[in-house]
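Let's do one together. I've listed all components of the complex below, 579 residues spread over two lines.
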Amino acid sequence: MIEVQNLTKTFGDRTAVDHISFTVNKGEILGFLGPNGAGKTTTMRILTGFLPATSGTAKIGGFDVFDDSIEVRRRIGYLPETPPLYTDMKVGEYLDFVTRIKNVPAEKRASRIEDALEKTNITDKRDELIKRLSRGYKQRVGIAQALVHDPDVIILDEPTVGLDPKQIIEVRHLIKGLAGNHTIILSTHILPEVSMTCDRVVIINRGKIAAVDTPANLTTQLKGAQHVRFEARADEAALRGAMQEIPGISNVVIEPVGSSGVLAVTVESAAGQDARSEIAAKIVGKGWPLLELRGVSLSLEEIFLQLTTDDASHAVESNT
Amino acid sequence: MKGLYAIYRKEMGHYFVSPIAYIVVGVFLLLTGFFFTKILSILIEQAFEMGMQGGQFGGVDVPSLLVRDFFGVLASLLLFLTPILTMGVYAEERKRGTMELLMTSPVTDTEIVLGKYLALLTLFVIMLLPTFAYAAFTFFHSDPAAPWRVLLCAYLGALLMGGVLLALGSFFSSLTENQLIAAVLTFGAFLILWVIDFGSRGSSTGIGAAIQYLSVIKHYDDFTRGVIDTSSVIYYASFIFLGLFLTVRSIDSMRWRRA
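Okay, and this is what the predicted structure of the assembly comes out as:
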C-alpha cells in the first residue's frame, strides 16, 4: 500500500530524512518510533504531499506522492502534530467541512460524520464549539477528522499526545480497530504505544532507519544478555559471594528492599544461558528464603535507547 | 470545483461568527453614513448660496458632486479597513495549522485561493450594499432626475478597486503567520500604489505617463465621474490577477520552504 524508497529531505544543509526505505502492507499498522527531531514528522509530511522530498520516491496505493499528489490526498487521512481545527466551528460543522473538502458524496456525508463521531466517542460533543473543548477532546476531533472520509491510509502524527490514560487506551483500541480496513502509520515517542498497537515498528533516529521489525522480534533479537531478577532474605556479602560462584554471571546489583532484610538482586548472565535454575538451586541450597525470581527481557525502551545511542556514537566516530 | 465551494462556504461561515467582520462592516457603515450626510448637507448649502447669488449657470449639479465626493471618502475608508478583512485570511490558517489540512486535502492551491477570494469579495459586496441605500434614497428625491449611470459606474469602480485591495491583501496574508504584519504590508503597498503619481502629475514624458497609469486612484476617479475606461478596467483586472497569481505561488512555496 505504501512504498518508500531512498527518501531524503534536506532543509538547507540539515538532513532531516536520510535515504529511508520501507513498505507498509495493506491493513497493517506501522509505528514510527524515534526521539523528537528524528524525522518522523518530516517523513509523514512527505507522504501526505505537504512537503516535497529532496530525492527518492514515495508511493501510496500506486500513486506517487509528488506527481499524483491530488490522487494520493484523496486516499489519505492525516492528523498533523497539532490537530488542524477551526476552533470557532462546532464539532459537527467542522467534520462536515472536512467531508466536503475531501470530496465525500453528499448522500454519504451525514452517515460518515455520525460514524466518525461514534468511533472517537465524541457524539455528545457534536454541537459544542471546538474552542470550548479540552485538549483531549480536541485531539479526538483531530482523529475524527482524519478518518471521517473513510480513507485507505491514515497517517497519525503522535495521536495520543495530550490525552489522559483512559483516553490513551481508548485511542489505542480505536486505532487497532481501524486496522484491516485501513492502512495506518502512526508516530510516537512513547514506547509502550508501539508494542501495544503496531504490527511493525520503524525505529528512526537522526533521519535514518535504525531498525524495522515487529515489536516482539525487536525485543528477542536485541535481547543479548539475559537478566534475572530475584528477591531473597540473606546477608548481602554472602549472597554476592554465592552469585560469583555461578559461572557466566556478572554485574550483580544488590539493593535492600525496605528494612525487612530482603534483598532485591539483578544479575546478568551470558547470552543464551538461562541461569534461573542454577540461581534458585544455589539460594535454596544455602537455606535462604527465596521470595521471587524471574527472567527480565529487555524492554522496548532499553532497545530503543540502545539503538539510538549506538547510532549516535557511530555518528560521532564517523565525524572524527 | 467542489473543493472551491467547500472553502467558500467555510470562509463565509467564519465571517458570520468572527467579530472582526462585524466590527469592520459596522465601523465602515457608521463612517460612510456620517460622511454621506455631511457631504450632502454641505453640497446643499453650497447650492443654496449659488442660487442666491444669481444661479445663471443653472446652479450646482448636487447628485454628481455628491457621488464624486462620497466615493472619494469611501476609497479612503476602504484603504484603512480592507487590510483588516484580509489580514487573517491565510495568516490565521498558517498559525492554527489548518493550512496543513487544506494542503493535504484533494483541493488544488488555485481552488483554495479562489474560494477564499470569492468569499472576501462577497463580504465586500455585503459591506458596500447598505451604502447604496443612502445614495438611492437621495436620488429618488432628486429633482431633476439624478444620474443613476454615474452612481452605478462609481460602484463598479469601488468594486474593482476593492477587488485589487482584497487580492493584494490575500497575497500579503499568505506571506506571514502574523496578521498584523499582513495588515501593515497591505496598507503600505496600497498606499504606495495610491500616491505613486504624486511626483509625475502634469508630466508629459513616457515614464511620467506610465507612472500615472499605475496609480490606483486615478483610474478610480474616472469611475466616480461616470466614465468607464477600458484601460482602467484592464488595469484593475490585471492587478487582481497578479495578486491572486502571487498568492497561489506563495502557497505553493510554503511546501518548499517549511522547515
